[in-house]
Design a protein that fits this description.
The chain is of the alpha/beta class. It is 42% helix and 14% strand.
Length: 297
């Protein structure tokens, strides 16, 4: 082959290869994250989320903890902590989402907990908005897992690892305090529900049980496997301390037959902020410290 034809052939091949490599139709689109969520759904985020809607109070709180609260453009009606969350646009409850409000916020991703129905998830995804389910942990140590997952989604792994380590260290400090504790632990009954609908308390395995134990006390419900208990169970247990949501305090202490309980008669019933104890959030630490404190009375 003559040199001029060989040179011509090289040029043609080079132009063809260059064109193939730079043709957008043949270039694979880059993906920021492929995430397997709590429902084992593979969710693809094409870019780092800059506009996030959270339908979980726990997720909202943790995003602020990671310094990612400025990415939130909307939250559920129940996301009321920290104070900045109260000022964000609301998109309805976790089971009655206002789709029009949601669409108007143009979110890159919607983060949900376990209370959002599959029907609503389907509706959101039909709008071509990615939905990632991060189920609320039933174990207080699960905060670490949730933090690390949010770190991946927001591309803030360093802050997530730091906060997760701090969380684990704090829980371990409470455990070490309990090891050094002397004396008989106070027996605590947490009023999950009461009255005509029945009596409910935290069973073993619940995060509330863990909170009570981390406070150095014994959970009266440690031997039950369901949240519902009989009235006879409560009166036979005769707890040293009763803890009730502050909004239910007055009603519980004045309602028969609870007025016959020794803890009620001896004014050993204490109010607590429900947001500290009813769901798994970093504010569980407030509940642990509070129960430690009242156990000294």
């Amino acid at each position: 082959m003559q040199p001029r034809y060989r040179l011509f052939l090289y040029c043609v091949c080079f132009v063809w290869l260059w064109s193939a490599c730079t043709n957008p139709r043949q270039t694979k689109q880059s993906v920021f994250l492929t995430f397997t969520d709590s429902y084992q759904r593979e969710v693809v985020l094409e870019q780092k989320p800059q506009r996030i809607v959270s339908l979980s109070p726990a997720i909202t709180e943790l995003l602020f903890m990671l310094g990612e609260g400025d990415k939130l453009v909307g939250v559920s009606d129940f996301c009321n902590y920290p104070e900045e969350a109260c000022r964000l646009p609301k998109v309805g409850g976790m089971q009655n989402i206002n789709m029009e409000s949601l669409i108007s916020l143009h979110p890159d991703v919607v983060l949900i907990g376990s209370m959002v129905s599959q029907e609503d998830v389907d509706k959101i995804e039909k709008l071509h908005i990615p939905v990632i389910a991060l189920i609320e942990e039933s174990d207080i140590t699960g905060i670490s897992t949730l933090l690390l997952n949010l770190g991946k989604i927001t591309d803030n792994d360093s802050a997530a690892r730091r906060e997760a380590a701090r969380w684990e260290e704090t829980l371990e400090a409470f455990r070490q305090q309990n090891i050094r504790q002397t004396g008989t632990p106070k027996r605590v009954y947490y009023v999950v529900g009461f009255g005509e609908t029945g009596d409910f308390t935290a069973p073993k395995g619940s995060h509330i049980h863990q909170i009570i134990e981390l406070a150095g006390c014994r959970n009266v419900g440690e031997d039950v496997t369901t949240w519902n208990v009989s009235r006879e169970f409560l009166f036979q247990a005769e707890p040293d301390i009763i803890i009730v949501r502050k909004e239910d305090m007055e009603h519980f202490c004045s309602l028969y037959p609870y007025t016959s309980l020794r803890a009620v008669k001896e004014h050993k019933v204490f109010p607590i902020e429900s947001s500290w104890i009813d769901i798994v959030t970093p504010r569980n630490l407030h509940a642990i410290a509070y129960i430690q404190h009242i156990a000294t009375f």
